[in-house]
């Protein structure tokens, strides 16, 4: 190779490291667009009661100027110091949440007890842009990825301090009281039970199928077929066979198995969660390097020792990714299960749809979305921690 060729080869840019900082300036300017649009749109919908049409209210001129300036601040800071983007992004989310509480409280001054002040389109657009800006701040500073979630601290402080108390969703939550807590607990029980059953069933199936191509094709094909069925259709299809089974076996009927309620909900949710658990399990076990398994065999390990000490630790981070996907999927499917009497946060979603009450819909939808984000974040952290630990061990 000539010196010129060597110089050309050496001039090739190395592949970026996994933890390299990313240039998020374009993303930040794009996030400014919904924030700017949200500042001009109405922020509050004032209605005389929960169901009546109302009046849209925008931001006062002084606050409008401040919000417009705050919308472009993350992008401006991103062009100067990317590692400081988290500061204006966190401030933008905090101001948006604070203004939601301030404007809803101001709108209800002098109104009747049944009046409701809801968040209008401007709030949601602004918070969408500010939230994406906060997420981009974590990408720009991967060594401190947690800065993308710093906005949670002031937001939770405002919520705990009662600043958002006049927002219509929280008003409906107070009116529901312990019933809402019961439905949230039921939602968590449904998700946790279905996820546990899917892991108990899908784990052994994935181990069995990982070394058998035909079994893998059959198992994954069946799980894929279940995923193609709409959740509502699957719940409906389970009503008749479970009702017949409960009538034929009195012990099952005594245990609470019937065509409606928890039994068909858990059955459908477990079937839906099997695909990501199976697929990631098979891929993870097949992805373990053959040389590592041969080395373990050469050390005299038994098949059981190779499985528990070599295969499972190396496959666990990828496998856990499938469990994470299944958990997030189940949070959404559990909401649909309320249609057959299984309870959960979906109860408020469908109650709000029946009565055209958007506040009740949000009372179920917002906690479900936050729950999905929390589950995804917690399992992702566990997945990353296992990956780093195994990387150091290697």
Layout of secondary structure:
Layout: H1 3-10, H2 25-40, E1 44-47, E2 55-57, H3 61-78, H4 86-107, E3 116-119, H5 121-140, H6 152-160, H7 168-176, H8 178-210, H9 213-228, H10 231-248, H11 250-254, H12 262-286, H13 290-298, H14 303-336, H15 346-355, H16 358-393
Antiparallel strand pairs: 1-2, 1-3
Helix pairs in contact: 2-3, 2-5, 3-4, 4-5, 4-6, 7-16, 8-9, 8-12, 8-14, 9-12, 10-12, 12-14, 13-14, 14-16, 15-16
What does this structure look like?
A hairpin with a 7-residue loop joins strand 1 (44-47) and strand 2. The protein has 2 domains: 19-168, no CATH class; 178-393, MetI-like fold, CATH 1.10.3720.10. It is flat. With 394 residues, it is mostly helical. It is built from 16 helices and 3 strands.
Quick summary:
This protein is 73% helix and 3% strand. The chain has 394 residues and is an all-alpha fold. It folds into 2 domains: 19-168, no CATH class; 178-393, Orthogonal Bundle (MetI-like fold), CATH 1.10.3720.
């Amino acid at each position: 190779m000539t010196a010129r060729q060597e110089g050309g080869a050496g001039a090739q840019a190395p592949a970026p490291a996994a933890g390299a900082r990313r240039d998020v300036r374009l993303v930040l300017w794009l996030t400014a667009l919904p924030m700017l649009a949200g500042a001009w749109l109405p922020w509050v919908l004032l209605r005389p009661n929960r169901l009546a049409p109302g009046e849209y209210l925008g931001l006062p001129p002084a606050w409008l100027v401040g919000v417009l300036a705050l919308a472009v601040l993350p992008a401006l800071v991103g062009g100067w110091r990317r590692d400081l983007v988290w500061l204006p992004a966190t401030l933008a989310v905090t101001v948006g949440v604070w203004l939601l509480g301030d404007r809803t409280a101001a709108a209800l001054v002098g109104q009747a007890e049944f009046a409701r002040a809801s968040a209008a389109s401007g709030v949601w657009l602004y918070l969408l842009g500010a939230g994406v800006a906060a997420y981009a701040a974590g990408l720009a500073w991967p060594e401190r990825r947690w800065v993308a979630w710093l906005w949670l601290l002031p937001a939770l402080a405002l919520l705990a301090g009662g600043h958002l108390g006049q927002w219509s969703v929280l008003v409906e939550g107070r009116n529901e009281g312990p019933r809402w807590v019961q439905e949230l607990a039921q939602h968590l029980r449904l998700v946790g039970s279905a996820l546990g059953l899917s892991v108990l069933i899908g784990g052994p199936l994935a181990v069995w199928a990982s070394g058998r191509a035909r079994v893998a094709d059959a198992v994954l094909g069946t799980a894929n077929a279940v995923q193609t069925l709409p959740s509502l259709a699957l719940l409906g299809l389970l009503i008749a066979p479970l009702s017949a089974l409960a009538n034929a076996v009195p012990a099952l009927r005594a245990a609470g198995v019937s065509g409606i309620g928890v039994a068909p909900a858990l059955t459908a949710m477990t079937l839906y969660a099997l695909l990501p658990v199976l697929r990631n399990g098979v891929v993870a076990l097949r992805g373990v390097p053959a040389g590592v398994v041969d080395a373990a065999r050469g050390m005299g390990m038994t098949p059981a020792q190779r499985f528990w000490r070599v295969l499972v630790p190396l496959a666990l981070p990828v496998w856990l990714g499938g469990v994470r996907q299944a958990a997030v999927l189940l949070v959404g499917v559990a909401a649909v299960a309320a249609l057959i009497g299984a309870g959960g946060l979906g109860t408020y979603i469908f109650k709000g749809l029946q009565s055209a009450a958007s506040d009740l819909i949000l009372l179920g939808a917002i906690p479900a979305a936050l729950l999905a984000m929390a589950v995804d974040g917690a399992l992702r952290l566990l997945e990353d921690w296992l990956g780093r630990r195994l990387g150091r061990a290697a």
